Description:
The chain is built from 13 helices and seven strands. Helix 1 runs antiparallel to helix 2, helix 5 runs antiparallel to helix 6 (97-108) and helix 6 packs antiparallel against helix 9. The chain is of the alpha/beta class. The longest helix has 23 residues, at 70-92.
Amino acid sequence: xxxxxxxxxxxxxxxxxxxxxxxxxxxxxxxxxxxxxxxxxxxxxxxxxxxxxxxxxxxxxxxxxxxxxxxxxxxxxxxxxxxxxxxxxxxxxxxxxxxxxxxxxxxxxxxxxxxxxxxxxxxxxxxxxxxxxxxxxxxxxxxxxxxxxxxxxxxxxxxxxxxxxxxxxxxxxxxxxxxxxxxxxxxxxxxxxxxxxxxxxxxxxxxxxxxxxxxxxxxxxxxxxxxxxxxxxxxxxxxxxxxxxxxxxxxxxxxxxxxxxxxxxxxxxxxxxxxxxxxxxxxxxxxxxxxxxxxx
Length: 296
């Protein structure tokens, strides 16, 4: 995916959310927003939007002198953990725990404070378990799970990772060895090793970090060790819109072997992505990379 002109309002919306979370000082809020001029002007229209917003959020953290999402990440980790026992029971008592856990993992993707300032977790859970996914490659996904012993799982947001934990527990119960990847350092409300430990995910599977604060997965920014692990992985589950932006293009422009199949679990929270895929905003997707339409 490449930057569209319609991405720019979202860049500013992300920045406003970040500064309001980071400080109540309106003068400092204005100073930070004005300080992003160079980053906005430097936007590379040939790159995914995540490329530009990575630099923008680095500048925001620098100008604020802290991570503005730190507290809200913990808040949503704890909120999701409050739902975890009941959701786990629903997963493992369902007719198909893999289907139920995959749907809940997609539901968890609603927790995104880079885009929304509030979320309806309960409503999204109900919609995920009772409604249909707009793109649903679950049969292909289940077959791939059964065919592979190891899974490389690209995590997305704090809070959301509790929902990922449910899916990972199902995979482990099926005898799979799961390695879950977090960000190397804070960016937006993306999960780090701290978040993985806070929700107990490190007790379920191996945790690695990508050595970067990039949004999504951009191999020119992530560490060589992480890139090698990703390239060596035969079966990849990718959570969230940022990872889809950066890894979902079928021409393999991000440097990942284009023949490698990835399963993307996300909600289309962006009008640009929804338009590119020919779906409505808010759609739930479980999509194989082999079936991403067009030159996304």
